[in-house]
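This entry is listed below:
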Amino acid sequence: MTQERRRYPRIAKPIDGSWSGASGAADCRIADISWGGCFINTMAAPALGERTIVTLPIGGAPVTIEGKVVSVDRPMGFAVEFDPLTPEQVDALKPMLGDPPASLRE
């Protein structure tokens, strides 16, 4: 059994979105998401450590979040750790993730 590395609980709710980075861009399915990051199901995957932009629709509007690829599981997809979220991104994610942890409100 592997050790849980996530800092925040994840929501396993498939969401159609997209990602883009130095190695390319593609539509994708976001398999799960938390305040700290997400796992993206896609055949194409960026390199470990690559800067990536994830775009997902929330409430009918696109939300764009930058981050870093922290693991790659070919051919399943890859995990992104989000950069510190802006207040606007926190507000946009609230309907899906609930109230943010105290560490994000400081």
Remarks:
- The domain at 15-101 is CATH 2.40.10.220 (Thrombin, subunit H).
- The first strand starts at residue 15 and ends at 21.
- The chain has a mean pLDDT of 89.
